[in-house]
Amino acid sequence: MRKPIVVVGSVNLDLVGCMDRIPAVGETVTGSRFELFHGGKGANQAVAAARLRYPVSMVAKVGDDQFGVRLRQGLRSAGVDVRAVRVAKRISSGVALISTDTRGQNSIVVIPGANGKLLPTDLENSVSVLRSAGIILTQLEIPWETVECLAALAQRFDIPLMLDPAPARPIPDDLIQKITFLTPNETETSVICGIRTKDLSPSTAPEIARTLLGRGLQNVVIKMGSRGAYAATSVDSGAFVPAFKVAAVDSTAAGDAFNGGLAVALMKGQSFLTAIRFGSAVAALSVTRMGAQPSMPSAREVNRFLKSGVRASLGHAVPDTELASSVEH
Fold first, then answer.
1. Cβ–Cβ contacts within 10 Å for residue 282, how many?
2. Boundaries of every domain in the chain
3. 320: three-class secondary structure by DSSP
């Protein structure tokens, strides 16, 4: 029996406004469309993995409102085990206010609601779920103390932990050293490493990755959007994995799609670079559709996409044999 992916994180209802361009500070623009989608970085990653037909359980909290009922049912319908998704009393569910433009770029305001009530005691109450995991995924849309507690539990149970460090904030070394896979984007990398975002590029990524690994990190994937991703491990030299060329419609949850796909591929025993290429394909397909969870592709769609001969934006991907995964199967 396959060990499940367990996601500990946020569950939100996304209120999405579509417009020609995202307004500047103090500016009002007229939008073209309004949509409601199920979101939250944790829930997005759980649904991404479930759509790829891999067993997924989620540890989370929703509010005791109609949004909470809707969000929990949405996860269940996607194939996520929601027995550890509990209801916080007298508080609203998490909400994200999202503006997206015609180029697929977005601006997001997150109101945590019940996500802010996911506490270390909830992890202790869900310890049987956590112990069952083959890998644990988490993000930073839940309280910091909960992330620290989760990292300690993952280390104690000897379960790989994948951290998507969003929203961006500095990560202390004592937490870095408990992380098996760190997957920051450009903004998050700059905050964690104390550099300017414009100083991160495919040419500088290897040095930045070495700096992170030097702090005790095991594996890192620096996500650079359409420029691809740079991957490095503590035991092998790094390598660059190009992004796929697609027509972007909405980039919301692309990073979550990547993480869900990466986790599934690793759990299926793929090499680190093959898993990153698979995650990149999941992310590429997700940006061609509107919404967070509705944009997550199926396993059949991803496999068809990978077989279609679509070229990566910077040429062919590097050989799959150069980096080994540190997830044991």
1. 31
2. 5-121+131-307
3. coil
Per-residue pLDDT of the chain (329 residues; tens, 9 = 90+): 799 999 999 999 989 899 999 999 999 999 999 989 899 999 999 999 999 999 999 999 999 999 999 999 999 999 999 999 999 999 999 998 989 898 878 888 889 999 999 999 999 999 999 999 999 999 999 999 999 999 999 999 999 999 999 999 999 999 999 999 999 999 999 999 999 999 999 999 999 999 999 999 999 999 998 899 999 999 887 999 999 999 988 888 899 999 999 999 999 999 999 999 999 999 999 999 988 898 999 999 999 999 986 665 543 334 333 454 445 43
Cite the active site residues: 256
Ramachandran angles phi, psi of 148, nearest 5°: -65, -40
Return the residue matching tokens 């025993």.
Answer: 269
The domain 5-121+131-307: what is its CATH number? 3.40.1190.20
Which residue bears the tokens 């997206």? 100
3-state secondary structure of 98: strand
Q: How many CA atoms lie within 13 A of 202 on its CB side?
A: 12
Position 177: which residue type?
Q
